[in-house]
Write a structure and sequence with these properties.
There is one protein chain. By secondary structure, the chain is an all-beta fold. 0% of the residues lie in helices and 54% in strands.
C-alpha cells in the first residue's frame, strides 16, 4: 500500500514563508497526479494546487502568485513553497496522489499563520 507523509508545517507570522514536503513510498509517484489540499477549521477541504506532470500546474485563485508546487520524481517528493502567507492560509495541508482510480492521502500537516487579531490555538 502506497503511503504519503507530509512535513514542514508550523507557526509563521503574516508575510512569512514555509515549504511543505510530501514524500511518497511505493512506486506511485511518477505515475500520479500530485496535489495539495487544505482544510481550515469548520470548513471543507479545498484544492490548493495540482502537479499534473512536467511543467503542468494549476493553482487555486487564492494562492496564485504566492504558492509554487513542484515535484522531484527522483526523490518521490512533492513540495509546496508558500510565500507572503496570510492568516486565511491557516489550516491542515494534505498531500494527495491520484493514479488511475486510486487516491492516496497523507495525514496532513498544520500551518498556522498569525498576525494582528488572529487567534492561535496550540494543540498536541
Amino acid at each position: 500500500q502506497a503511503q504519503l507523509a507530509e512535513s514542514g508545517g508550523g507557526l509563521v507570522e503574516t508575510g512569512g514563508s514555509l515549504t511543505l514536503s510530501c514524500t511518497a513510498s511505493g512506486r506511485i509517484f511518477d505515475v500520479s497526479i500530485m496535489s495539495w489540499f487544505r482544510q481550515a477549521a469548520g470548513k471543507e477541504r479545498e484544492l490548493v494546487a495540482h502537479s499534473l506532470g512536467v511543467g503542468r500546474r494549476n493553482y487555486a485563485d487564492s494562492v496564485k502568485g504566492r504558492f509554487t508546487i513542484s515535484r522531484d520524481n527522483a526523490k518521490n517528493t512533492l513540495y509546496l513553497q508558500m510565500n507572503s502567507l496570510k492568516p486565511e492560509d491557516t489550516g491542515v495541508y494534505y498531500c494527495r496522489a491520484m493514479y488511475g482510480k486510486t487516491e492516496v492521502w497523507g495525514q496532513g500537516t498544520q500551518v498556522t499563520v498569525w498576525g494582528q487579531g488572529t487567534q492561535v490555538t496550540v494543540s498536541s
